[in-house]
Design brief:
- It holds the Pfam family Duc1.
- It comes from Trichodelitschia bisporula.
- Residues 32-289 form the Domain of unknown function at the cortex domain.
- With 349 residues, this protein is α+β, with helices and mostly antiparallel strands.
- The chain has 2 domains: 3-294, no CATH class; 296-348, no CATH class.
- It has helices spanning 3-10, 17-27, 133-144, 163-166, 196-203, 209-215, 219-223, 293-320, 344-348, and strands spanning 30-37, 46-47, 56-59, 63-71, 76-77, 98-106, 110-111, 115-120, 149-151, 158-162, 169-175, 191-192, 226-227, 231-239, 242-243, 248-251, 254-257, 267-275, 281-291.
- Strands 1, 2, 5, 8, 9, 10, 18 and 19 form an 8-stranded mixed beta sheet that branches. It has a 6-stranded mixed beta sheet with strand order 3-4-6-14-11-12, covered by helices on one side. A 3-stranded antiparallel beta sheet has the order 15-16-17, with helices on both faces.
- Strand 18 (267-275) and strand 19 form a beta hairpin.
- The longest helix is centred in the C-terminal third of the chain and has 28 residues, at 293-320.
- The chain is globular and about 55 Å long.
Length: 349
């Protein structure tokens, strides 16, 4: 009997049809919001417009960054997000459920040996871990990403892997090039541009992404790589394993529904790019599950933000005489209303 079959048997009680129905009912009570910023501090974050060509940009003392997030069948904030991205129609991403893509330009040389990518929390979660969690980590480490390490029982739990081996696509750009807007529909291709080709050749980096990821599992190989000041770097992290619609972890052989274990309150899933040795945080992307009164509050706040943007655009058009643009078909157009995303609309009323 294979390891996956054994694990599937062990967690069968977590994946029965009644549980799947229950997970769907739980999921309807929540509304998802995505933000990103240059630090852990949420006051430094900006909204991420999911499945659109609108890029979220920010900077700190270490780098200038832009972030784009795609989520299959997205339903959430902010207004202006779309339910679908053509990214998921690409043959290489038909199974993927989400993507976090980004570009950054370091303001100083940054060593890569201790840079990590992954999830962390500022509070304990050990009392909310679902049955099968440890088995899930074993499957991820053995079959998906052998570079990850995890301590889910710490006071500030974490799951990290070396950034250079975690990112499923990585592209090295030119020095001195400006950050171009990220294309929502076109997936990032492994490779390089301009002098970035010489960097890859000099370091002997494999052309295929799976071989590059394996190459950087070695600490010795990471020691030879530095994120150069002024050079553009691109990355894309994607997979088919997290279902944000049902808040479930779907691994080969079984699924683990996690929403029942997070409690009826706001909860965050936080991705971070940081230097684990120095504690330097480069950028953070946060998926927030809003529940109860927090749903209505967030919708109202987003309405204020959205109206302020509309008013600002109107003033610019009046001053320049520009034509009124046709609004895109999106969650942020007429189909998005406070009624739809009210507490009652979220399945709580």
């Amino acid at each position: 009997m294979s390891i996956i079959s054994s694990l599937a048997r062990a967690v069968r009680s977590e994946t029965s049809s009644p549980d799947n129905v229950e997970e769907s009912l739980y999921a309807e009570k929540y509304l998802l919001r995505v933000t990103a910023g240059p630090s852990y501090d949420p006051t430094t974050h900006k909204p991420v417009f999911v499945n659109t060509n609108r890029t979220t940009c920010f900077e700190n003392e270490f780098m200038t960054t832009q972030v784009k997030v795609r989520i299959r069948e997205y339903r959430g904030l902010p207004r202006g997000s779309r339910a679908h991205s053509d990214y998921f129609d690409d043959p290489g991403h038909k199974r993927d459920r989400y993507s976090i893509s980004f570009s950054f330009v370091p303001k100083q040389d940054l060593e890569s040996l201790h840079t990590v990518w992954g999830n962390d929390f500022d509070h304990p979660v050990r009392d909310r871990l679902p049955p099968g969690f440890n088995m899930a980590v074993r499957i991820v480490k053995e079959f998906i990403d052998p570079g990850i390490e995890c301590d889910a029982y710490a006071d500030e739990p974490w799951l990290y892997g070396p950034s250079l081996s975690c990112w499923f696509a990585m592209r090295i750009g030119e020095i001195g090039a400006e950050l171009a807007p990220l294309d929502d529909e076109r997936p990032l291709e492994e490779g390089a541009d301009g002098s970035g080709e010489h960097v890859r050749a000099r370091l002997g980096l494999p052309h295929q992404q799976h071989k590059r990821r394996k190459h950087f599992l070695s600490a010795k190989n990471r020691e030879t790589f530095a994120f150069e000041k002024g050079r553009v770097y691109h990355g894309d992290f994607f997979n088919p394993y997290i279902d944000f619609n049902k808040f479930a972890l779907r691994l080969p052989g079984f699924s683990i529904g996690v929403i029942r274990y997070i409690g009826d309150k706001t909860h965050n899933l936080r991705y971070v790019f940081k230097n684990r040795a120095t504690g330097e945080v480069y950028f953070v992307v946060v998926f927030t599950l809003l529940f109860g009164d927090d749903v209505q509050k967030a919708v109202d706040e987003d309405l204020v933000r959205h109206q302020a943007e509309m008013d600002a655009e109107t003033r610019v058009r009046e001053q320049t005489g520009a034509a009124v643009p046709t609004p895109p078909e999106s969650i942020g157009s007429d189909d998005f209303s406070t009624k739809e995303f009210s507490v009652k609309g979220a399945g709580l009323g």
